[in-house]
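sorry for the late reply, my laptop died twice this morning and i had to redo everyting from scratch. anyway the thing you sent over, i finally got around to it. pasting the sequence first so we're on the same page, its 683 residues, then the predicted structure underneath. double check i copied it right bc i was rushing
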Amino acid sequence: MFRGIDEVDWASMDHAYGSAEDVPALLRGLASPQPEERERSLDGMYGAVHHQGDVYDSTLACIPFLFALIASEDVPDRGGVVELLASIGGGTVDPQDGDEEYAASDDNCAMARAAVRSGAAVFASLVTDRDPEVRRAAPTALVRFLGEPARVLDLLRERLAEETDDRVRLALAEGLGLFARLYPASASPAVDCLVRIGAAAGEPGLRLAALGQLASCAPEHLPADLVPTVVELLRERSRQLRAPDEPERPETDTLIGHLRRLRPADEEGSQLLRTLHTALGGRVGDRIALLEGQLTSPDATDRCNAVWMSAGLFREWRASFDEPVTLIGEQLRADDERLRDAAVSVLEDLFILAVPAADHLAELAAARPESRVRHWERGAPSLGGPLKALARTGDPRAVPLLAEVLELPEVPKDIGYVIPYAGPAAAALAPQLRARLADVPVDSPETYDRAAPLLTALAALGDGAAAPDVLRLVHLAPGGLRNRDPLLAGAAHALGELGNPDAIPALRTLLHTDCAVTAAASLWSLERDPDAVLPVLTGELTSERAHRRRAAAEALGRLGRPARSTSSALLRMLGSDDVWERTTAACALWRVTGDAEAVLPVFRAAWLENAYTRGTIASCLAELGSAGAPLHDLPHAELTNPRRHRARSGGFGSHDILEDEQLLRACREAVEDGRQGARQDGA
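ok and here's the structure:
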C-alpha cells in the first residue's frame, strides 16, 4: 500500500505549514488500527496537506497512496479517505458554482484533477464495497471523475435497485442529480429516475432527496403541490425515524472531531432540507411556506432544522418574513435546549426584523437571568443571545435587563455595542455607563478593550455628563499603553458626540496626534471654527495611508461649504484607484461645493463596482434631491431587486441584514426626496 513512499523526497515539498516531511506519517496513520490515530491523521491531511482546499506539491504526491488506501478493504474508515481524495480532485465543487474555473485556477489544481480522473476506475468498484460509509462516499466521486456517462448512469441506477442501506440510497439519489447537472445532454434518464423516486410511495427520506435534486437540475418536473408534499414527507420521515447506525467514533481534540460534535441531531434531515432550499433559490414564497410548515412540525428536530435553514433565506433575500420570524420566536418556549439556542442564534442577527419575536425574547430574557450573559472558557463574558436580540429590535423591555447586567462585577465585553440599538429608553443607562467607564484603569493592557464599548454607547446616547470620564482617558493614558491610538480616537469621537464644550482644549491637543482627523471632526462639531480644523484635514488628504485620506474627506464633507478651499484636492481624489476613496471624496465634494456634475459619474461607477458602497451613495443621493435624478435608476433598481446587496457580493456577516435594511431605507429616501425636489423645481 505504501510501496515507494520512502523514495519520495518529501523534505523538498511543502504544505500549509512548511516542510512536508511529516506527510508519510500522516498517510500511514490513515491505515492505523487505532481509530484515534486515523482521525488525527485525516485531520492533519485536511489541516496541512489540503488546507482550506489548497493543493500543494505534497498533495499531488499523496494521490497514489490515497488511491492505494481506498482500494484496500483491510483499511477501516476509508469513506473519509474517499471524500478527501474527491476534494483534492475538486469533487466538492458543484458545476453550478463555476466548477470548471476550479481546474483552471491553479496548475496544481489542474494536475490534481487529472490525477484523480486517471485513477477513477476504482470508484466504480467502491459503489459495491462492503463498508456502507465507503458506498456513501463513492457516488459523488464516481460521477465527478470517471468520465464515462453511460457507465456511470447504469451503475447509479443498478445500485439504487439493489442497495439496502437508506443513507447510501440517499447518496445515490444525490449522485443522479449531480450527474444531470454535470452531463445535461445525457440527463434525461437520470431525471426520469428522480421523478419516479419522488412520486413513489414509501421511503420519505429518499423521496425528499429526489425532490431536492429535481429542484436543482429539472425544476419543471417538480410537483405543483411541492410545499405540502415536502412538509408531509418530512413529518412522515420524522415518525419513522430511528437513530442511524453510526460507527463508533473516537473522542479527539481534532477539527474533524469538533465538527462531528457540532453536527445537528438529524444531520441527514438537515442536509435534505439544505439541498432543497438551495435549489429553490429565489422562489422565496415557496421557501417561506416550506419554513412555516417545518416550524409547525410536532417534531422538535424538524423545527430545529427549519430554524437553521431560515438563516440563509433571511441573509440572502428580501421579503416579508414576519410569519416565519414569529414562528421562530415561538421556539424559545420549547423544552429542547438545542432548538432554543438555534432560534436565539438566528434572531440575534435580524435586528429590527426580529420584532415579531420580541415578546418571546423578552419573556425568555426575563425568566432566565442566566441567559443574559454568556461566559467563555477564556476571556471576558459577552451579552447573552436573548437579551442581545431583544435590544437589537429597539424594544424598551431590554433596558431594565441591561441595567441589571451593568451592575454585575464583570460587564460583558460587547454590551456597549448593543446598547445603541435599544432605542430612546436606553438613555436611562447613561449613569451606569459613566460609572463603569470611571472604573476602567488608564494603564492596563485591557484599557482599550474595556473602554471602547462604553465609549461607543455613551457617544450614541450623547451623554454630555460623561465628558469628564472620557477626558480622564485622554489626559492620563500613558505613552506606551497597548492600543493607545485607537483608545484616543474612540475618546475623541465620543467627545464630539457628547456636545460638552469642556472637551475643546483636549481635542485641540489631539490635532497633533495620529487621531488628528477624528479630533478635528469632533472639534468642528463643538465649536464650528473652520480655521481650527481645515489645516489638519487638508494635510491629511495627502497622507500616505488611504484610511486617513478617506477619513479626512469624510470629515470635510461634514464641514460643508466652509471647506470649499479643499475642492481641488477632493476633485483629484476622484481619480483614485480605490473605489472607497473615490466614493468618499465624491460625497465630500458635493457637500462642500453643491456641484453634482462631477460626482454623479463617480457614484454610478462605484455603485456598480462595489455593492458595499451603495449605502453611502444612497444617503448622499437623498441629499442631492432632484440634482441626483440622473442616478435615480440605481435606487429604483435596488428597491425592486429581491436579493440582498451583500449576498450578491459574497458577504455574510452578523450585520449584513441590518446594513441591507439601512440601504433600502436610504434608497427609499433618495427616491422620495428626488420626487419632492422635482415637484419643487417644477413649481
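The chain has a mean pLDDT of 92.
thats about all i looked at so far, will dig more tmrw
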